[in-house]
Write a structure and sequence with these properties.
By secondary structure, the protein is of the alpha+beta class. The protein contains 15 helices and 19 strands. The strands form 4 sheets. Strands 12, 13, 14, 15, 16, 17, 18 and 19 form an 8-stranded antiparallel sheet that branches. Strands 5-6-10-8-9 form a 5-stranded antiparallel sheet.
Length: 463
């Protein structure tokens, strides 16, 4: 390791992992994140190898009055994993994972991503709801509640938490569970990284079949309205084993796509059946036969392959602007507006998604976790994605226009992992006044100086 990195490390007392400063070999790679629209330069990037390293980094940043960010997977569209002129507490050196197949539990450290997590748990025929893109970090997704293809069957990731290990703003190592610091445990299940750095997650796991049906059925763009209406009715009556979303995208330049269609708008229905393949064939049949689709790519596959279904369209390094809302209803007028706008993208990389709620999500009491909005039947995820900085304005405006057009049918709440930095009012609205006040009270106890503010922030009530 270089002398520069060694010298930098010595500035953080008690820190054993590598530390990068601007100009060091490896600094540029270490600060890179999923969304290239965000370009920040931390003063130091401290890659932790243990919870003790996290303590050292937190104490150093706090005592030096430096801003703090926490890098788990770096996949969040806000780019909150990195901060300017502060300390980036980088968890990517913490990838410990221990599965107990008999108890069906796992202890997973905060630097893991979902690809790594799923590969380890599925060796035992076990899984939990996880991120829809393998490179997504487990930390940010779980703390934000944790949406994924298995959520209608197994609930959000946070619904499967038994405990978290955390380093707080004053440098303590604490555990939060239903029996230990229960109010903090309530807050971390949806309240994000506002209360400390979670170094390990203790999760319940569930048996899954070795193969399940998964894939896409793809339609021409002009069928978008009809497909969305049919899918709406299908999902309102679908069993909990069905995880699904509609994706208004552009067809990839891939061998399985007919050449005249490549690069042009299409409508895809993503289908996952979290049960026996034979059952899935019958349950998914109505959706697969509607139209009929131009392509049916649904097939038996392991869960790890299900988790890779949309990975090719979600690669690191492009410019991203996202938004989203929970919908209270999806009437025909809303279908018309969504389909008309979403089938006219300004970038072939953009993805306008409609996701179905219900099932296990709605069975959890609204007040059981910080995350709410349990009963919304639909959730929109509007992903503007492009490569040329010259196209920033038109792509951002495209997403904002669709988001605004759908407001008449929204609940006023949002899944915060799906949106960018839309201001403090949006964060408060996501929780509602009662939960927001309860979360602020927690913030007053655990982080009164708002050290952990580089996130969808919950400021202390006294600020």
């Amino acid at each position: 390791m270089s002398d520069v990195i060694d010298a930098t490390r010595s500035e953080i007392p008690g820190f054993s992992g590598p530390v990068w400063a601007d100009g060091d070999p490896g600094y540029e790679e270490a600060r890179s994140i999923f969304n290239s629209l965000v370009d920040r330069h931390p003063l130091l990037i401290a890659r932790c190898t243990s919870a003790d390293d996290v303590v050292a980094a937190v104490n150093f940043a706090r005592d030096s009055a430096l801003p703090v960010s926490v890098y788990g997977g770096g996949h969040g569209v806000t780019g909150a994993a990195v901060c300017d002129d502060g300390v980036c507490i980088d968890l990517r050196g913490m990838k410990g994972l221990a599965v107990d197949p008999e108890k069906r539990t796992v202890r997973a450290e905060g630097g893991l991503n979902w690809g790594e997590f799923d590969a380890a748990t599925t060796e035992h025929g076990l899984a939990v709801t996880g991120g829809r893109v393998p490179s997504t970090g487990i930390a940010g997704l779980t703390l934000g509640s944790g949406s994924g293809w298995l959520e209608r069957k197994l609930g959000f990731v946070c619904d499967n938490l038994n405990a978290v290990e955390m380093v707080t703003a004053d440098g303590r190592q604490v555990v939060a569970s239903k029996d230990e610091n229960p109010e903090l445990f309530w807050g971390v299940r949806g309240g994000g990284g506002n209360f400390g750095v979670v170094t390990a997650f203790h999760l319940r796991l569930h048996p899954i079949p070795p193969l399940m049906l998964g894939g896409l059925v793809i339609y021409p763009a002009e069928m978008g309205r009809d497909v969305l209406r049919f899918w709406r009715e299908y999902m309102l009556n679908a069993p909990n084993e069905v995880g699904s979303g509609m994706a208004f995208v552009s067809a990839p330049h891939a061998d399985f796509v007919p050449e005249p269609v490549r690069g042009h708008p299409v409508v895809g229905v993503i289908l996952v059946y979290a049960g026996p393949v034979e059952e899935g064939e019958e349950v998914l049949r109505p959706m697969r036969e509607f139209g009929p689709p131009g392509m049916d790519l649904v097939a038996p596959m392991p869960y790890t392959a299900v988790q890779q279904l949309i990975e090719p369209q979600n690669q690191k390094g492009f410019r991203n602007y996202w938004s989203g809302d929970f919908l209270a209803e999806l009437p025909d007028e809303a279908v018309e507006i969504f389909a008309e706008h979403a089938t006219q993208p300004v970038s072939p990389m953009s993805q306008m998604l409609m996701l179905a709620g219900g099932g296990a999500i709605a069975r959890v009491d609204e007040d059981a976790t910080a995350f709410g909005q349990r009963n919304a039947p639909w959730n929109t995820h509007l992903l503007g994605m492009w490569s040329d900085p010259a196209d920033d304005e038109k792509n951002i405006e495209y997403v904002r226009k669709l988001s605004a057009a759908m407001k008449p049918w929204t609940t006023g709440r949002a899944y915060l992992n799906f949106i960018g930095d839309e201001g403090p009012g949006r964060v408060e609205a996501a929780f509602g006044p009662e939960k927001f006040a309860r979360l602020q009270a927690l913030k007053d106890v655990w982080d009164p100086q708002n050290l952990f503010c580089h996130n969808q922030n919950l400021p202390p009530s006294r600020k």
